[in-house]
What we know:
By secondary structure, the chain is mainly beta.
Amino acid sequence: MTVDRRQFLTGVTALAVSPIIAGATSAPMTLEAKQGHIKLIPEEFGDYPQTNVWGFDGGVPGPLIRARQGDVIERKLINHLPQDTSVHWHGLRVPNAMDGVPGMTQDAVPTGGEFLYKLPLQDAGTYWYHSHNQSTEQVARGLYGVLVVDEETPPDVDHDIIVVLDDWRLSQEAQVTEDFGAMHDWTHAGRMGNFVHAHLTPQLVSVQTSQRLRLRFVNVATDRVMAVSLSGVQGKLVARDGMPLEQPEDFSVLTFGPAERADVIVDVTAEQGDTVQLAIHERDTDYLLQELKVGGRHSSGPRGAIPPLPDNPLSRLTDLTNARTVPLKMEGGAMGGLRQGRYKGRQLSTQELVDEGQIWTFNGEAGLPEAPLLTASRGEIIRIPIQNDTVFPHAMHLHGTHFQEVLPDGRFGPLKDTILVNPRESREIAFIADNPGDWLLHCHMLSHQAAGMKTWLRVS
Length: 460
Ligand code: C2O
Ligand code: CU
């Protein structure tokens, strides 16, 4: 099935009644966390049964939430699962009470319970939502979906395609294996799956030469870093983690730590009878994830340069003169990284930490510390040099606002909400602390987060 731009825009117009009136008179839309089953493994791999999942509205990915920049949307989470849950709106600048972090911004929603999320959509872009409770298990079972905030004037493309990159650990019967807290995973690179998959929305099967495509990549894997490439197209990287780049950039391989996103706009260069291919690069081999047939030539012909996306109302850094620096050092994990550390206010030996399932530390402390890493006053500029003193990569995610990398030459990188810090590497992030509240800063390799890699900061 293909949905073209025109149909999509008609749909948006039809829904664009005043959100204030709509909110006042109608019940909020629901988002039900519940069990379901999906056909995950394609027929060509053999005759596999459906996979049992936990999904929003029972599907994986959950329903695509799509609205226009400036709208305020509501979703009432209803929990039908046998565990508590919550929803975090990854990358959205939301009021703190809507951030979905149990024990910090709300109580976890128990079985049968509800929670109303009210989300002002300040910035256009590609975001996602996922469970933030027992997330190593709940995200692995499928509790995530994509949230797209459309620009007031979206760029002119023929297809706007969401590409969800996921990584499943499946049994021979195509069921999610229930070894969620496996210590060997937690001490190493995390819970790696055995079935990497790219889910497209809409589920397009063919394109035409010279068509312009916008592809929105989202890595929802709990732990896997994905390096993907496209062939049969030519274009530019236009946004990262939802935020427009000031200037579109060339790209060849796109690397995504868990939770990272990118938008590209590309023109199909492959000719009729050929294909557009999406591949993932793993250990010197490329594996095909998706293939689109090229059926004919688009009538309008080539369209010229790819313009930058309209910018979002979020200030970028200009200088760091009055910035405060608070370093963060990561230690732990297997292969010599594991040391002693504090946990719940006590100094523990290496073995005692392992017994607690805590094998990673930030500044010598495992798990969520009682005191924040820092307290910023509103508007203050904070720099956090992050030193990875382990032999594993970590995808560091800050809630509540985007940050920029401070590059070695003093310039600033693009706005991001997650940054992949490679083994033994140091990277520095900086941001304007202008969203009040308590915000997590954690590794988005969810196994590492569960095993210690989390802290928080307060903006007052
Ligand atoms: Cu996408 Cu704290 O998470
Ligand atoms: Cu990590």
